[in-house]
Amino acid sequence: MSVLVIAEHLRGQVRDVTRELITAGRELGPVTVAVIGQEPGSLVDAVNLDGVAEIVTVAIAAGEFENDAFQAAVEALIADRKPRVTLLGFTVNSMGYGPAAAVKLGLGFASDVHGVTLEGDAVIATRSFYGSKVSAELDFPGADGVMLLLRPTVWAPAEGAGGATVASLEVAASPSRARHRELMEATASSDVDITQADFLLSIGRGIGDKENVEMFRELAEKMGATLSVSRPLVDAGWMPASRQVGQSGKTVKPTVYLAFGISGAVQHLAGMKTSGTIIAVNTDPEAAIFNVAQYGAKADLFDVAEELEKLY
Amino acid sequence: MRTVVCIKQVLQLGDEVEFTDDGLDVDPDYLDPALNEWDSFATEEALQLRERLGGEVVVVTCGPKQSEAALRRCLAMGADRAIRVEGAGRDPFSVARALADVVRGESADLVLCGVQSSDAVQAATGTALAELLDLPRAAVITKLDYSGAGTAVVDRELEGGLVDRVEIDTPAVLTIQTGINQPRYANLRAIKQAEQVEIDVRSAAGGGTPAYRIRKMFVPERGEGAEMIDGSPAEIAARIASIVKERLA
Known about the structure:
The complex is a heterodimer of chains A (about 300) and B (about 250).
Chain A: E1 3-6, E2 9-10, E3 13-14, H1 16-26, E4 31-37, H2 44-47, E5 52-59, H3 67-81, E6 85-89, H4 92-105, E7 108-119, E8 122-129, E9 134-139, E10 146-150, E11 165-168, E12 178-185, E13 199-203, H5 213-223, E14 226-229, H6 231-235, E15 256-260, H7 266-269, E16 277-282, H8 289-292, E17 295-298, H9 301-310
Parallel strand pairs in A: 1-4, 1-6, 4-5, 5-11, 6-10, 7-10, 13-14, 13-15, 15-16, 16-17
Antiparallel strand pairs in A: 2-3, 7-8, 8-9
Helix pairs in contact in A: 3-4, 5-9
Chain B: E1 2-7, E2 9-13, E3 31-35, H1 37-53, E4 56-62, H2 68-77, E5 81-86, H3 92-104, E6 110-114, H4 125-133, E7 137-145, E8 151-157, E9 162-169, E10 172-176, H5 188-196, E11 200-203, E12 213-218, E13 227-228, H6 233-248
Parallel strand pairs in B: 1-4, 1-6, 4-5, 5-11, 6-10, 7-10
Antiparallel strand pairs in B: 2-3, 7-8, 8-9
Helix pairs in contact in B: 2-5, 3-4
């Protein structure tokens, strides 16, 4: 079972998810890691990890990610190496070209995959549906190969030096119809840095109204916590993006993470699940946050918040 | 200026779950339909484009008769026309093929999709659709700057609070992220009027390999999970305070 892993990198650094893909890949078979970029050779050492059999560099003109260039390179790699499985991270970059390459090449495809096994020659992927409340096993009958976008932070990052051979693949330059201009920090702000906080009191959609933010701000202050939020509160304009915990916001690891009204979308959990102690208060007993919390309470947020305030 | 918005009626699972007899999906009795949250932002973005540049907003969905409720929601927000395609599979490639056949006939300047659907979280249909239409695309857009022709400038929201500004040729397919705007509410009158609009129903041509096949659906085994704190709000608060104090000591 040959496996192709597409390395993801940003500003000259290989991203963690690439090492996770290598871990997932080497459980399936010999791994080829492809590094696509303006100067791919500079990233070879960073992906030459235990379990990697081969590294293929593909030079492209674009300095940062551009989806047309990545798609052309990945299609060329698949045509040349004919992997049974191609692994990408379930990331914003992959979302821009992975499904396009797969539908064009007639590959089986699944994204946000959190489990992969083999049954003989058949690839079986596990992913969630319906708000992560159920899982499904998928197979890919009739497909020539399979492309899987794996959920970040599920597999442990590969470590240890590898002894991979290094090759390169020439890909004809294709015009980029969507061209990178600049990278910017979305959260440039003089606000507090929530990644430095030892104690986060985090609020989510469950607080219901903008007017209720103030109550939790006061509670956080009394308890000596820093206030953070989940994405919907930033989307609604109630709180600045600098306070957002999750994949598109900040990854935090405080000693204590106290969550009120956060159900626990996968993207939120990815940003806080390694916190020291997680305590969650939610009205929904099935909320996914209870799967990562050490302590939980199914209760009215406001009643608990009021009682807590009396104790400080 | 014509913008096509591809939307989905998502199915939300409550506290309880039962599966269909074949074990391949959740029993529909346990699922509540709604307009996908991302798609309400995509629809709003299209309506704002129309307000600035004129033209038309067409909403398209792929799904059974029941999913017309989601189309009517978009009509009530202000969309001009609605098309429903039926008879396709539910995996992202089957849906993208069915949508492509319809969108191709609309000669749109922009095609907007939500980044993903809340019930399946695949983030794949929009990008696959762009490929089938042979259009440029960009995924996870939090800002759109477009004057009606030529190139658009869009912000892609990357992980970790980074934004990638991209110049994109049009026509293009963009997948729209939540927070790009504040979707408007439809008033009661608009909701009533939308009930009367005739929806153009088409049949999917079918064919093509689906992205995947579901073999089995099941409730995942939970880990240990949280230790649940029972009692009155005062008792819960007291326990939380004591855990916090102990951990921060």
